[in-house]
Amino acid sequence: MLFDTHVHVNAEQFNEDLEDVIERAQEAGVNNMVVVGFDRPTITRAMELIETYDFMYAAVGWHPVDAIDMTEEDLKWIEELSSHPKVVAIGEMGLDYHWDKSPKAIQMEVFRKQIRLAKKVGLPIIIHNREATADIVNILKEEEASEVGGIMHCFSGSVETAMECIDMNFYISLGGPVTFKNAKKPKEVAAAVPLDRLLIETDCPYLAPHPYRGKRNEPSYVKLVAEQIAEIKQLSVEEVSQATTDNAKKLFGIN
């Protein structure tokens, strides 16, 4: 029993062989996944997929890299979609200071608007953070995001930051990087974060775990993330799988 809390099977990288990818995921024990839409095309595709597959759920939001493209109409559309019974989160949202397509001020504005929307509709949020930790933590505090909580997606920060986020009602989600031999921080976080605040994900098609690093990632590989965390925490893979699945269902309100 595995729950991949962050997939992009709505990406064009899966256009040719999605059925095979899904079959491999189910064979690996992946019983649920959240398909994340972050702009018009990927949100539209995510909504199509959740109507087709009963084990898929959707998160709808606007990616910080493309914040400059988001209109009030887009925000209204996300709000409308949020009432769908299988839309379980708003996001991914946040800040990304690696790419310079969208100015920081616009990213912050779009981030705040989406937090306020999530609070209005009562859904948790999924946070994308790249080279922007201090600003993200400040905005989450200022906007009182703890009211809805959510996920620090593909967390790459320190143990201290992880604990600060947990205090704000967030779960820490680990993906492929925790399996990388040189990934000191994710391994420290996996060891330190209590099991009841951990989630697992692939972020496929990106960030494939070892030994597939550099190749296309897919949901079946989330098992490798669970195995690595189990090894670090000296628990069974079953315990980690069960706990992270329970955590995801609790957060997303899935029975």
From TrEMBL:
Organism expressing this protein natively:
Peribacillus butanolivorans
Would you name any one GO CC term? cytosol
Q: Which top-level group of life is the source organism from?
A: Bacteria
Coiled-coil positions are none
> Which InterPro entries would you find in this protein's record?
DNase_TatD-rel_CS, Metal_Hydrolase, TatD-like, TatD/YcfH-like
Keyword terms: Hydrolase, Metal-binding
SUPFAM superfamilies per the UniProt record, alphabetical:
Metallo-dependent hydrolases (SSF51556)
What is this protein identified as? Hydrolase TatD
Per UniProt, a divalent metal cation 1 binds at H6, H8, E92, D203
A single Gene Ontology MF term assigned here is:
metal ion binding
Q: Which residues make up the binding site for a divalent metal cation 2?
A: H128, H153
Q: Pfam families per the record?
A: TatD_DNase
